[in-house]
Every structure is written in structure tokens, then in C-alpha cells.
Write a structure and sequence with these properties.
Layout (H helix, E strand, L loop, with lengths): L1 H13 L11 H10 L5 H14 L3 H5 L3 H8 L6 H16 L8 H4 L7 H12 L8 H10 L9 H14 L5 H14 L18 H4 L16 E12 L3 E2 L2 E2 L10 E2 L2 E4 L5 H7 L11 E5 L5 E4 L3 E12 L7 E2 L10 H10 L2
Parallel strand pairs: 1-8
Antiparallel strand pairs: 1-5, 2-9, 3-4, 6-8, 7-8
Helix pairs in contact: 1-11, 2-3, 2-8, 8-11, 9-11
Length: about 350
């Protein structure tokens, strides 16, 4: 099809020089695809290089402590990706003797691998004609064919997957998949796409109908909930602090944080100090408390906005076993905590 040939030709001229494009080793391709899920290349590239350096093989990653994996992942967000990455590495290393599944269907059995990632690995590593569909692909196809079906609907997912599968060049599936993703990332961008230099500007329906800014269509998600976090940053005279490991099934599972007090709304300093007088860590402890940031730091996640304050608790001795402030950077923490640690400069 002319579309596929034009796209692949464009890619041969304009593709970026990226390390995972210099190999078809499934371990490296899998690693890059997991890192680049919901992450731009410029942000993901240093993480990819760090992982390859520290864990050059799937066995190295499988044998690592989860805390080391989470620490290396720190700042990328969506930490379930890192936990799934580690779990799948163990499965491949221990159950499959280090050999990755070599087809789309079996790749889907890996934890954290969905349709897009399985398609990418299958096509790039094993030349299987499995079409990828990600945000870039949705944008390119919805604009070129003027498709108004919401991309975050079940109907849209099926429609775009079917269309991409019809368009893929069965003889060059790896090039086609990488081409359409690259085209969406650098040419058919979300805002201010380069339509004047686009090889499809004479056949793109959205451009012809002046609908570039309207596509793709996405159903608006529910309004993000507000949450109010108050972290208690203990500092003892012997320069120790308290870090707690988060439990349960949350986005920060197994990451470390300062003791957290969550409130229903933002409290004044006086109201908060009165509230925490009965806190388990404070009720039998002599301390002085001060507010580090007068204005709440707003940390935006996909489903919630965290309004955060850090309260400095100076005390002679910690009420529980602590960690040296000199070693605090060795722990895997959410980026919200990491940014505070750097700004406070323990």
C-alpha cells in the first residue's frame, strides 16, 4: 500500500539514532518498550542506558533486589512497570532459561506486557506482522483517515488495531511499526505538527478538512481527586530520620516515604499541630515542629492531585529505629519525596 511505503521511506530518512534501534535482542527491546510506556524518549533514554549498564542481561535483572530496581526507576513514575519488569525478568530467567517468547501470543503472557509491547517485540525481534497501536499511532491514523471514534473507548481500540493491522507491511513489520511511532512522535505531533513538510499533506483528510487540532478524539476522564498529604520529617540530634516502606497495592508500593498523615483538607499550622499531638510517633516524644513549605506542593498524578506539606520534627532521640540522614538517598522513594530530599539537602 502507498501509505506504508511512503511511511517507511520517510522513516529511512528521518529516524532518530537510538540505542535500541541498533539491536534486535528481545531483552533490550523489551526493556526499552517498558521504559517508554507513557514516557517520552528524551526522559526514558538515560533510564534505558542505566538499566543496560547495571543489568546487561535478563539474568542480572532477575537476580537483583526489588529495592535496587525501584531505586534505578526512581523519577519515571508508574512504578508498577518496574515491579512487573522485575517479575517478568525472573520468569524469563528461571522458567524459560533466559529465552524470551518469540511470538505475539506468548509474549502477552509476560507480566506488564500488553498488546502494544507484545506487537513491538514480536515485529522488531521476530519479524511478525503484529501492528503496534500507541498514542502516536492513534494520532497519525485518526488524522490521516479522519476517524472520530474515541481512542480511549473499547470500540476505538478495536477499530484502530484493525486498521493498523491492515496497513502494516508484512514484509517489513519492524520498519513499519517503528516508522509510524516515529512519525507520530516527531512529525505528526500533538501540537503544531509539521503539516507543510508532511509527505501525506496531499492525502491527509484531517488537514484537508481543517480538523488537525480536533483529532484524535478522547473521552474526558473523571476529574482528578484532591488528596492532602502531610509528611513528618523527623531529625534527631544524632542526625537520623524515619523512613517507612509503603505496603498494600498502591502506585508507590514498596517505595519509602516519611511518616504520612493524610487529612480531608488543608489544615492551618495550628490545627495540624493539634491533630498530630496524639500521633503514635509523637505522643510520648519531646519535639519542635516547623512547616517546611508554607504553600502546598501539588503533585499531579493521572487520577489524583496530591497537595503536600513537609513538617520538620526536631527531636533529641527518635521514637523508633531510624536511618542516618547521610544514607537517605540510598532508598527508593517517590519523586515527590526525592525532590524534597534534594531541596532540603540533608
Amino acid at each position: 500500500m502507498i501509505f506504508s511505503k511512503t511511511l517507511i521511506h520517510w522513516y529511512s530518512i528521518h529516524k532518530r539514532n537510538l540505542p535500541w534501534r541498533e539491536t534486535n535482542n528481545p531483552y533490550y527491546i523489551w526493556l526499552s518498550e517498558i521504559i517508554l510506556q507513557q514516557t517520552q524518549v528524551k526522559q526514558g533514554l538515560p533510564y534505558y542506558e542505566a538499566f543496560v549498564s547495571k543489568f546487561p542481561s535478563v539474568f542480572d535483572l532477575a537476580n537483583a533486589d526489588e529495592s535496587d530496581v525501584l531505586k534505578l526507576w526512581q523519577g519515571l513514575g508508574y512504578y508498577s512497570r518496574a515491579r512487573n519488569l522485575h517479575a517478568s525478568a525472573k520468569y524469563v530467567a528461571n522458567e524459560l532459561e533466559g529465552v524470551f517468547p518469540n511470538n505475539y501470543k506468548d509474549l502477552l503472557k509476560l507480566k506488564g506486557v500488553g498488546d502494544y509491547t507484545a506487537s513491538a517485540i514480536a515485529s522488531i525481534c521476530f519479524n511478525e506482522a503484529a501492528a503496534v497501536v500507541d498514542g502516536n499511532v492513534y494520532r497519525v491514523l485518526s488524522r490521516y483517515f479522519d476517524i472520530e471514534t474515541p481512542i480511549n473507548s473499547s470500540k476505538g481500540a478495536k477499530e484502530f488495531k484493525t486498521l493498523a493491522q491492515e496497513l502494516i507491511d508484512a514484509k517489513q513489520p519492524a520498519n513499519f511499526n517503528q516508522a509510524i511511532m516515529e512519525f507520530g512522535a516527531t512529525q505528526c505531533k500533538p501540537k503544531n505538527p509539521n503539516c507543510t513538510t508532511c509527505p501525506f499533506n496531499s492525502s491527509c483528510l484531517a488537514l484537508k478538512r481543517n480538523k488537525i487540532a480536533d483529532l484524535p478524539v478522547k473521552i474526558k476522564s473523571a476529574k482528578a481527586k484532591k488528596k492532602y498529604f502531610n509528611f513528618l520529617v523527623f531529625i534527631s540530634e544524632d542526625e537520623k530520620t524515619i523512613l517507612e516502606k509503603r505496603k498494600g497495592k498502591g502506585i508507590w508500593q514498596n517505595l519509602y516515604q516519611f511518616p504520612l498523615v493524610e487529612t480531608d483538607n488543608e489544615l492551618t499550622e495550628k490545627a495540624f499541630k493539634n491533630l498530630v499531638l496524639d500521633h503514635d510517633l509523637l505522643k510520648d516524644t519531646a519535639f519542635k515542629m516547623s512547616l517546611y513549605n508554607k504553600e502546598s506542593l501539588i503533585h499531579k498524578l493521572s487520577h489524583q492531585h496530591l497537595y503536600t506539606k513537609f513538617w520538620i520534627i526536631n527531636t533529641k532521640k527518635l521514637p523508633v529505629k531510624g536511618v542516618s540522614t547521610s544514607k537517605i538517598r540510598e532508598f527508593a522513594v517517590p519523586i515527590l519525596i526525592g525532590n524534597f530530599i534534594e531541596s532540603f539537602n540533608f
